[in-house]
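ok trying again, last paste got cut off:
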Amino acid sequence: MTLTKSLGQFVADLSPNRLPEEAARVARMGFIDTIGTMIAGRNEDSVRILTETLAPGDGSATLTFGERKAPAPEAAWINGTAAHALDYDDVALRGHPSTVLVPAILAEAEHLGSSGADMITAYVAGYETWAELFRRDTGLLHQKGWHPTGLYGAVGAAAACAKLRKLDAEKSAIAIALGASQSAGLMSNFGTMTKPFHAGKSAHAGIMAARLAEAGFTANTDALEHPQGFLHAISPTGTEDRSSESKAGKEWAILSQGLGIKKYPTCYCTHRAIDCMLDLVNNSPIKADEVEKITVNISDYFSTVLRNHQPDTGLAAKFSIEFCMASGIVAQRVGLRELTDDFVQRPDIQALMKKVEIVTTTTYDPDLPGAAPQDQVTVKLADGRTIEGEPVARATGHPSRPLTDQQLYDKFADCLDAGESPIPADVLFKRLSAIQSINARDLTARA
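nice, full thing came through this time. structure:
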């Protein structure tokens, strides 16, 4: 059986009673974190402009847990953009799976009146499909200029929505193939409104792929593995695996890979260095005017992603290791209130960013594609002293160093506060914690 057909069969066969409880727990966490970041990002300019331009009519799906509703495809597009707008959403599989899967599933499930158990199952279907593509190419997509969230996301969302709509194996495979033809996202647009647009458009693509497949639209059911298909087209090195059997449903990637929940609203490539810097300043307080040089040791891959060396906006600063180091010293934190244009443009931040030196390595951690075995920060002071931070191999929030339940709630509540949520954080958090026993329409209801 071809890969595309095999994934279609996996999606069609998946049911709530087949899911390991830990898989359901990870999926619930993905919903909680993504809905928090979605609400936090609901008032961003990217979301406002997209909503005004799409001008969606009334529909069955709620926009960013507010009063307004729209047709599900447009709601997924807008909500996905909001969820990724602050770059605060979870990470796994070289991208941001939940910021695509959750908005697509929420919108379509609200339209269909799906159960929470069906939503969790759809999430796992999408995650495992994404993971199957991820494992077939060890090449680093970012170095080719691809944004993996936009590429893998459209396919994963198509699988998730095919599951929600209960498509058979053939139509699920066609939905996946349709999702693959809608994959897109360029790294050259990082640090602008277009990066979160990639996530929203992929969520929209997933809904449309499943709907079209159900209606009889055609696509080739070898679209993933064909010599001119998805895997070969995106491969940085042309060494993709197009022939081995699918592991979806046999080995649960969601259990082995999990989700990394972000502690900071910046590109994940900055997080280990931020951990190092914040530990350093906590143990040895430093004033900005005492700093002669800051040296950051990261991989060349991370350095490629962190393209903005002297940002002057909050959006651009999310992809700047220089900003993160400066914020760590000046504010002793890197949070939502630091990722503003006013803070980034402060003279002391701008001056300190110029003192950051990046030292790269091409030695990678075999378990973290593109990452060095560890990241480290060293600060040289004007008085001649040098302070070294403890090397960090796994960022806070990584599955091996998970946030506590209280930290997860605190982040959620902070996000809802930032987005001026019409639903109290404790009410919505309680609903999401019991998502498997709640209907999608009740989930978005006003308190």
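cool. The domain at 268-388 is CATH 3.30.1330.120 (60s Ribosomal Protein L30; Chain: A;). Residues 360 and 391 are 14 Å apart (CA to CA).
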